[in-house]
Amino acid sequence: xxxxxxxxxxxxxxxxxxxxxxxxxxxxxxxxxxxxxxxxxxxxxxxxxxxxxxxxxxxxxxxxxxxxxxxxxxxxxxxxxxxxxxxxxxxxxxxxxxxxx
Length: 101
Known about the structure:
Blueprint: H1 14-17, E1 22-30, E2 32-37, E3 47-51, E4 57-62, E5 68-72, E6 79-86, E7 91-99
Antiparallel strand pairs: 1-2, 2-5, 3-4, 3-6, 6-7
């Protein structure tokens, strides 16, 4: 490094450094399950999709800013499902869910 050289570290942009967090519990689920999430401003709107083993869309829910969604399992048959959180362009998160009765 030469004398007189100034090095500066740019400030971090909090929007770019925010960590996307998703959490599904309980799994296996009986009665209800909860999905916790955080949505970045530029990634809106986001949707929670629930698909069966064949990939058929069973339910789609637009997510709000609450950061949590509770889903009751009475409308689902026991089995394995795939949950995903999607924007109009990308899949942000995927998780396997087992529903028991």
